[in-house]
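To: structure desk
From: M.T.
Subject: fold request, one chain
Message: Could you run this one when you get a chance? Sequence is below, nothing fancy, just the single chain.
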Amino acid sequence: MLELPEVEVLRRDLEKEIVGKRIKDVTVETPSVVRPFHRNRPEFVKALAGRKVEAARRRGTVIFVDLDEGYTWIIDAGDEGSLHRETANEAPGPGTHLMVTFTIGGAIHLSEPGSQATAHTGVVPTGEALEAAGVSPDALDPLDDNPTWMEFGRFLADADGPLKLVLTDPTRIAGLGPIYSDEILWEAGLRHDRVTSKLSTQEIRRLYRAMQEVIVLAMKAAGSSLDDSEAEAAIDDEGTAAQHLRVFGRDGLPCSRCRKPILRTRIKKGIYTYHCDQCMI
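Reply: Done. Structure tokens follow.
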């Protein structure tokens, strides 16, 4: 699953790679990826082809590529999608949803493993982009909004809910999911079921610092996602957690802080957390 750190790396790569370029050709291999925004593939192609890219920004896990004439290209890579650069003549590989080439050379492909597409893309007026993408304008983006620890503390007090559920609620925090919410909580030494409004000042500062440190570390681990069509996954094909993760996917393994076994606990239907009962309080 792509979360905020990986998507921010993609955005930065896109900013360097395509801003200032004009889109030449657009090929949609999977019709369903444009249907949330367009009636059919030709409508999407007409809306995107010929446009000049002016900026690449992000909110949560959705990338917004601002185009000329007041339009924005929305790219939601879904659960496992990736964007990667190719030559302009490169044929689509397995799982390729979309191919976009540019007038001065090069191409960007949107791909996703598996048979079920979760990625979505479309072109809408810039003023309507957030709403069209289903992104809450009131949700806190830890990178874009860059709150102080005191502002973060007030946010937590207002949220007044279990830490894990608040961190993964897209209407409250944009971009964090099951992976990095667990990593942040482990780094801060706080249990998933602690109530946000009941945290001490010291605990708020620990959580704030952990959120910053975990996101930065994850971005470093992601590298340059456009250069690698198989961006580093949190869990590999053999079920092993990525090296930069300390708790997620490591149930049964010793905690690297206290050596007690990592636990996997069901919070509610479809939502689990990885944690250590010994050193998280």
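Reply (cont.): The CA atoms of residues 264 and 274 lie 5 Å apart. Let me know if you need anything else for the meeting.
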